[in-house]
Every structure is written in C-alpha cells, then in structure tokens.
Amino acid sequence: MFSGFVTRFHITGRSLLTLYNKVAYRLLSTTNTISKNIPGISFEQEVNLSNNHLNDKYFLERYDQRKQLHYARQARDAQVPLGGLVDLNDVFINNEVNLNYTKVYGFDYDYTLANYTENLSRAIYRALRYLLIKQFNYPKGLESLDFDQDFAIRGLHYDMQTGWLMKIDAFSNVQMNTIYFGREPLKDIQELHEIHKGVHISQEYLNDMYQLNDLFSIPEACLLADVIQYFNDHDVKFHPRYLVEDVRAAARIIHLGTSHDGIGGQLHHMIINHIPEFLEKAPRLVKYLEKLRTHGKKLFLLTNSSFGFVDKGLSYITGSADWRSLFDVIICSADKPRFYTTRRPFRRVSAPNWSIVDKFEKGNVYQGGNMMDFSKFTGWQGSSIMYIGDHVYSDLVSPTLQQGWRTGCVIRELSREISIRNLPTSRFSLSWLLNLESLIREAQAASIDQQHREKLQLLLNEWRSERKELRTLLKRVFNPQFGSVFRTHHNPTFFANKIRKFADLYTSNVENFNNYPLDYIFYPERAYLPHEGLVETFFDPGQRM
Asked: Which amino acid positions bind Mg(2+), per UniProt (predicted)?
C-alpha cells in the first residue's frame, strides 16, 4: 500500500504538510474504493478543501464528509472479514527478548500455573464477609451482601482518608467518572478538587492509598464498596482506614491461616476440598513445560503458597502426582517480595526441616529463603532467567530492577478486553472518536474572523459533547463503573503503566508462550513519541491509527 502511494506522491518539491494530509486521508479511508463509492465525495475534494476560506461551514463540511467515510467503511467491513484483529492468544511485547539467551524459566503458582474459576472470587468475598461479622464484630446485616462480579476491576486505588474507590492513570491523574463512594458515584466532584486542588494525586498522598493489584483483590474491592454503602444507608459512622485494615487482616487470615498445618488458611482448605469447583485443568501447560525441559532449559517454581496447597493443585492441573519432576527447583512459602530483599534461610519442607540448607537437591522441596542464596546455590543470574507471574510487586519489580531477570506477566483479563476491542462496534466507535478529536484540534487552531468565531465555538461545543458521549460509551463496554483495566480515556492506567515498565512480555495465559519456538526473538513495535509521528508514519506500515 505505502510503496505505491509514495510512488504516486513524490516527497521532493511538495509541501510536507500537504503530503501528511494525503497520507492521513488514505489511512482514514483505507482504500480508494471507499471514497469512490460515496456519491458526491472524492479524495480530491477532501484535499482541496484545505484551500477554502476557513469558517464554521468549512468545518461542518469536513465533519459530514468524515462521518460519511466512516460509515462507509463500517458498512464495508461488516460484509467482509475484518482485518487487523488482535489475537487473544498472542504474547505482547514491551521490551525485546531473545529466547536464545533464556536458559532458565521460573513460574509463580496462583493465577500463573493455576487458573481459578469465577467461583473463587465469590468464595473469597463470602469468607471475608463472614470474618468481618464473626471476628471483627461488624453488623450482622452484612450477611445479606454478596459478590457482584461486574462491579470492580483490578488496579483500582482505595483512598484511606475518604473511602473512595477510583481509577488512576499513568500520570497519577484520576479518571473523573470512576470515583465511587460505596456503590454510588461521587456526587460532588468539587470534593476531589478541594482535597487535591485538581485531579492529580501527589506521590505522597498516593503512597498512602491502597492499590488492589491482583485478581484476589477484586472481591476485596467489592466488599469495601458494599460495606461503605451499608454504613451510609444505615447512618453508621466509620473511618475508611479502619475498614480497609480490617478487610486486609481478614484476607491474611483466609490466605495464610493462624497455624502451621502445611496447607495455609481457610481459603486454601476450601479450594483443595473442592478442586474441580475452583481450578481449571491445563493439559497444554504440561506440554509447554515438557518442551522446555526437552530443549535443555532449567525450570523452577517460586510461589508464596504453601507446598501442601500447591501439591494438591498441580496434581490436579497436570493430571499427575509426579508434577515435581517437571521442575529443577521448587520453593514454596517464599514470602515475596521480601524474598528478594531479606536473608531468611531456606528450609526443607520434608522432615527434618531444621537442618541447614547450603545447596538445592533434585526432588526436594524448599520453603522461605532469599534471592542471594537462590543465586548462589543455582548459579542462575541475570537476563538468562525468565520469570513469569501475575503480580506486579511480588513477581515483576524486584526481579527486574535488582536482578536483571527477564519477566513475563500473565493477565487473565486480557483475553476479555481484546475480545471487546475486536468487536466492530468498539472498533468503529474508537475510529470515529479519533476522527472527531482530530477535527476538534484542527478547528481550535484555525484562524477565523470574528464573524464566524461564535458559530465555530458552538460547533466545537457540540463536538465536545459528542466526544464525551463516545468516551463514556467506550468506557462502559469494558465495565460500567470503571472501564478498562488497561486504559483511562487516552492514557494507560496506573496498573498498565507498571506492566509496561516491569514486564518485558505479557499475555492472558502462560500456555500462550508455547505458541513460539524457543529461538524466537520478541521484537517490540516502535513506540512513537508525539513529535515523531508526522514523518515516520509515511514509511512505517506498522504504525496504527
């Protein structure tokens, strides 16, 4: 497409801006056939309009033409297979990774090797609610509350001073229509401005907020909102910090328990007693791990979960009680992220477990430990290691910053978000939003006489209202309250920015890595800065609109 286009429109002797307008138009209409098939509109008309006198009528004509082109493209693509759809099983690249240099593969357990069913979130919610009532003396009226899987998303922040749940972007700005107090949107946005003098959250204030980072935290977010709503409805006075501290304490109890029985807390007992209800089998996972071993790769398991819990789970997931033979080193109850920074010694899980561990032995299982001894015992270091997990702070940050490991992140929500983005309605709503924003930018910067300025301002107001409606629509298709896990209106979310910074690769399921040969080089797409797009997109067919 581009080679033929450049041949027809030589750069030499032409205005760069005129050429840019033509390229932008070609990208918008995709093929010549669209504009040719619309009565009264041609490519030449669109380009030549730039020579007309700028006024409100000119911009209205631009709007009408672009909308007709947009709907023509929508009608065309509705009748033929859509191109450019994103593969749900793809591995996405933030940073170049050459698998030829990867000699060691490490894995987390929960939500990495183990995929849980939706039943788990409801079970966590009910267990937390029970503890709040029975152990923390919360009102018995909370028994009527239950988990709503459509309310919260991962990556939200909870304000311990106000009790607000909100979504924050990569620049620490609050997305305005994602602030909830209980189950209701914040009624007076001026309250946010009074606290923060705008929508930006200072780093000091942000450090005192609680971020709900993993999939285990989604039922926590829902419970926090439900309890606050109950308190508001019943005029119960409370401090938001006490509430989140109690919920977090309850979460520690159900995950870790209060005794060393080798399994963990109430949640782990519930899962292993009803494994088919909570865990998904993964036959492709075994094939991937076996492929790694066949090609001489070293494998290790590094998880915070107890061995008794992991043993039951992986025996079910892999269909074999001999799953330990897949790994060279197995470390449970690792207490990440403290594992990376402390000097706690390793202990053998099997008795006698008080003897000193000064090397790893094949077939043994270890608990606790620290990064320094791990590197010493194995000799594995630096970028030869690829560690794959699901939690930003437990699995990605320290291995990346302190050890130079390569990292992969498993984000289960990714497949759903891609499916929604691939829908024709989502694609065309986004396409029209981008067109509309382009028109708004152009009209704002136009030099227009005073006679037409007021009419143009009215037109701009209409376009901004339409833009607001489109942005709300694109938010609600992902989640009515908080939108996409990965994006605010135009910026990455705080959560997505951490993934971009600390995960070299990310995907929806660890098994997706099996789709690539072990000598594959993951090349990231060129990331364009705003000032680079004008010239570079002439020649880069990979640049997306």
From this structure: 108, 390
Give ∠ CA 471-473-476 in degrees, rounded to 5.
Answer: 110
Percent of the chain with pLDDT over 90: 72
pLDDT tens-digit series, residues 319-350: 999 999 999 999 999 999 999 999 999 999 98
Q: Which domains does the chain have, with CATH numbers?
A: 92-116+278-414 (3.40.50.1000), 119-271 (no CATH)
Burial class (CB in 10 A: 0-12, 13-18, 19+), 4: exposed
**148 annotated as a binding-site residue:** no
Instruction: Check: CB of residue 282 under 8 Å from CB of residue 317.
Output: yes
Q: What amino acid is encoded at 263 in this protein? A: I
**441 touches 378 (CB < 8 A):** no
Catalytic one among 64, 77, 87, 108? 108
Give yes or no: 108 in active site: yes
Which band of pLDDT confidence, cut at 50, 70 and 90, is reported for residue 453? Answer: confident
In angstroms, what CA-CA distances link 534 with 22, 438, 445, 492?
A: 12, 14, 17, 22
- The burial of 383, by beta-carbon neighbours within 10 Å (0-12 exposed, 13-18 middle, 19 or more buried), is given as middle
Give the C-alpha separation, 385 to 392, whole Å.
17
Cα distances (Å, whole numbers) of residue 335 to 96, 466, 473: 29, 50, 42
DSSP states along 141-199? GGGG----TTT--TT-EE-TTT-EEE-BBTTSBBPGGG-EETTEE-S-THHHHHHHSSS
| Window from 161-175, 213-227, 434-448, 486-500 with minimum mean pLDDT | 434-448
Tell whether 390 is in a known binding site.
Answer: yes
The active-site residue out of 56, 110, 246, 373 is 110
Residue 169 among the catalytic residues: no
